[in-house]
Amino acid sequence: MSAPIEQARRWIHESERVLIGAGAGMSAAAGIDYGDTATFARLFPAFVRRGFRAQYQLIGHTGLTPAQHWGYWSTHVKHVAFSEDERVAYQALQGLVQDRDTFVLTSNVDRLFPRNGFDEARLFTPQGDYALLQCRKPCTRETWPTRPVIERCLTALDPVTQEVSDPEAIPRCPRCGGAVFMNVRIDAGFVEEPYVEQAQRFRQWLREAATARLLVIEIGAGFNTPSVVRWRMEQLVHQHPGARLVRINLSDPELPDALGKRAVALAMGAEQAIGLLRNGAKAA
Ligand SMILES: [Zn+2]
């Protein structure tokens, strides 16, 4: 067993509060990988015929008709945010920290934390949430539940073309009649209101953690949007006396010099790291 794993296990054991900062690498461990061509081919055969190979190519793509657009997004969001698939890595992580006072901050919009046993009241998703819809303009700061809208699209889905065959099923803003999209941070029109309360709860939890032994476990947070998770976790540990950082990252495990002996990196995938940490926790 390597020294970093042993150290991380000891820090988990010694911690009173655990902050989990999770990026795309955590969802990839649960099979949600926007570059995964095999899953894309299985879910989107009609889009493969249109020349696409992976989900990342559809992010921000504007060349689809509304029927194709909602055919794609309803299938994608159902798979990512509402499927009943078991997500072993999340459940293992939950098992690892279940007797600690835990808060989760994640850039992921897939709801995998609350769907796998993490407390919704201890969750901050500053990049948004696939479970909510907003007006694209936006003409209102309101949001609406996504699920009934995409279920209606999926009911009207042509199985061959993967287009929404009923124009009435294409969602529109109930106020202005314009386009809607999931409530995720894609541009300056992002409706932040659903996350204001989460942010307040997060700040309150951090204030209460000021006198606690705080451990930050950062998982799969790279340099795509580093200010959301990675840099924020580094900054928190830097400012919080006695706090420690466990960075789990296969491709970018480097640690800032300023954290010295208060940080350790596990240069491996999330699933492997959580499995190794969990085996130790069970034995302890
Ligand atoms: Zn509107």
TrEMBL record:
Binding site for Zn(2+): 135, 139, 173, 176
Swiss-Prot/TrEMBL keywords: Metal-binding, NAD, Transferase, Zinc
InterPro entries (alphabetical): DHS-like_NAD/FAD-binding_dom, NAD-dep_sirtuin_deacylases, Sirtuin_cat_small_dom_sf, Ssirtuin_cat_dom
Deacetylase sirtuin-type domain sequence ranges: 1-284
PROSITE patterns: SIRTUIN (PS50305)
Coiled-coil intervals: none
Protein name (record): NAD-dependent protein deacetylase of SIR2 family
Protein source organism: Corallococcus praedator
Source organism phylogeny: Bacteria, Pseudomonadati, Myxococcota, Myxococcia, Myxococcales
